[in-house]
Amino acid sequence: MCCASELLQLTAHPAVVAIVAGSAVLYFMLFRKSRLPAIPFELRPPPESLPGWQGNEVLESPSIIVPGNPELIQCFDPATGRSLGQVKATTMDELEAKIERARKAQKTWAATTFEQRRQVLRSLNEFVLSHQREICQVACRDSGKTLVDATLGEVLTTSAKLQWTIKNGEAALADDSRDPGFMMMYKRAKVVYQPRGVVAALVSWNYPFHNTIGPVISALFAGNAIVVKASEHVAWSMSYWEQMVKRALNVCGHDPDLVHFVTGFAEIGVAVTSSPRIDHITFIGSPEVGKLVMRSASANLTPVTLELGGKDCAVVFGDADMAQCVPVLMRSVIQNASQNCIGIERILVQDTAYEGFVDEMTRRIRAVRVGSILDDKPNTVDCGAMVLSNCADRLEALIKDAVSKGARCLAGGHRFAHPLHPKGQYFAPTLLVDVTPDMDITRNETFGPIMVVMKFADEKDALEKVHSSPYGLGSSVFSGDRSRGRRVALALRTGMANVNDFGVNYICQSLPFGGVGISGFGRFAGPEGLRSLCVEKAFTEDRFPLVKTPIPPIVDYPIQDSEKGYQFTQQIVAFAYSDSWWGSIKAGLRLGKLSM
Predict the structure, then answer these.
(1) What is the pTM of this model?
(2) By three-state DSSP, how is residue 319 classified?
(3) What is the pLDDT averaged over residues 140-145?
(4) Sheet containing strand 187-195, strands side by side
(5) Alpha carbons 219 and 161: distance in angstroms, whole number
(6) How far apart are CA 191 and CA 172, in angstroms?
(7) Which of 57, 81, 280, 447 is the most exposed, fewest CB within 10 Å of its CB?
(8) pLDDT number for residue 24
(9) Residue range 276-295: average pLDDT?
(10) Which active-site residues does the annotation give?
(11) Residue 65 burial (CB count, 10 A)
């Protein structure tokens, strides 16, 4: 108490206060990095995104194909079938011109500081945070999802990526000093992460905002320009997302040509992946198309990152906390009508908890309501529409195959004809139980609101059933036993695993995202994702100005005595890499003798 009193008296002295205050000011002036603030900007969303909009006709047969005109893409709201107009597909000449402008802009951008890049991301993040509803409504109109699903899958994930990159991107790309080893102790060794140039991303349609903006965030921060090939199924919203990024660049004083969005059918995708002026490719899609991307990229040996979807599993043990587990798994299936690369498509439940789990899920799945969140009455929609117009036949065939082999369909199982939106693309939320590994639905990605439930006896049985699928993207394990949860999660042949949760690894943007098997390879997100967009250059330099690498006369060209030269180099190896000091000493003595 006495010491504390004396300290208070000391710090109250004006001279002490002045010294402390002065030191703080000096620290901030000399060591605190200047922070460039976000610059606000505005962008009007398209009027079609407003709730209740009915400006165009409902298409009789909704399709992205315009008969007789392959240069146009028909856009429509999958929740209602209402036309959103037509978008012109990017031509080959336009693509080449965009790549050229991006390459020119990148040369200047590569010289920017990390703080300048952060300012662009801060400006973009501030726009996203202050325009969440507008962004969600645009995504809902183009992909038929609900506002809740858009907030979680489009906005939250994008802001998480922006904030992680702003706070941690520089550290991830900072020069990485390495140990030069004993023989090169007079050198400095490090890895330098340099921009690749112009990178490309070919992204899927399930999250039109996040899937397009996510690659842009990483590409820009790594010092690259980027060309984004947007899916033709969500071509309507692409102009809004592109203008958003270009505005952020422009208000911060940078060239908007750093970012270009292109859209079109298969031929424009091939043109992007086969271009010799593209320095890296990120592809999000199916394994079948991923193989075509690899083949196309191989002509120029362009490096690729492939995220090819999954047949993600959740292993639920009998001791799991069902009050927490059941709602999480409902979200994992119904979120975005399960049009998620990491959606849970196989739920394995231990036999001791199986019947109770099935009963609860039957009640919940049957209560799920589908519809258009922008057009229906409030509080009447839980699950949105299906983006692809041709998916219902495939899903019904997979369910029919499973039922024919012994599975029970306790809810749904078929396309849903919405009474208010007869041209909308809906699939009834489905519960399929007693599923076994021999059924086609366990090996084929559904991308639809189908809860597949399988029974298992023990850990060995669960692992065997999980690994019967060739996919290996994400996974979940639910158990009250922490050691068992960790053990099983680490034993799963997947790129990502969560214990007592679903998909949260992606909110942890410090973690890499990607899979194994036919789920692809390479990673985005985290330091690994940022670095994949860089050339990892090995770099050495002299540690001391006067100490350089000499070439001993005995091995200088032309070599006078080959045998003696060989013995000399042999002893260099022994001297530098012997396991014992005595071995190094003996080799050193021999080197001295050979040098005489």
Answers:
(1) 0.91
(2) coil
(3) 98
(4) 176-178, 187-195, 534-542
(5) 12
(6) 12
(7) 57
(8) 53
(9) 96
(10) 307, 341
(11) 14
Q: How far apart are CA 116 and CA 131, in angstroms?
A: 23
> Mean pLDDT across the chain, nearest whole number?
94
Question: How many whole angstroms separate alpha carbon 221 and alpha carbon 217?
Answer: 6
- Residue 561's φ and ψ, nearest 5 degrees, are -135, 100
Closest CA to 381 of 423, 426, 347, 444: 426
Give the tokens for residue 423.
């041209």
Contact 35, 115 (CB under 8 A): yes
Label residue 104 left, alpha or beta by phi (over 0 means left) and psi (-120 to 50 means alpha).
alpha
d(CA 537, CA 523): 19
Q: Produce one character per residue of 399-409: b if its CB has 16 or more CB atoms within 10 Å, e if not.
A: bbebbeeebeb
Strands 450-456, 344-350: pairing is: parallel
In this predicted structure, the answer to whether residue 120 has a pLDDT above a threshold of 50 is yes
The whole-angstrom separation of Cα 411 and Cα 363 is 9
The two tokens of residue 76 are 């429509």
Cα–Cα distance, 122 to 463 (Å, whole number): 44
How far is residue 197's CA from residue 185's CA, in Å, rounded to a whole number?
33
Closest among 202, 358, 232, 418 to 293, alpha carbons compared: 202
Contacts 24+ apart (CB under 8 A), 457-463: 457/350, 457/351, 458/350, 459/484, 459/487, 459/488, 459/491, 462/315, 462/348, 462/350, 462/488, 463/488, 463/491, 463/492
- Residue 409 confidence class, pLDDT cut points 50, 70, 90: very high
Q: Residue 2 — pLDDT band, cuts 50, 70, 90?
A: very low
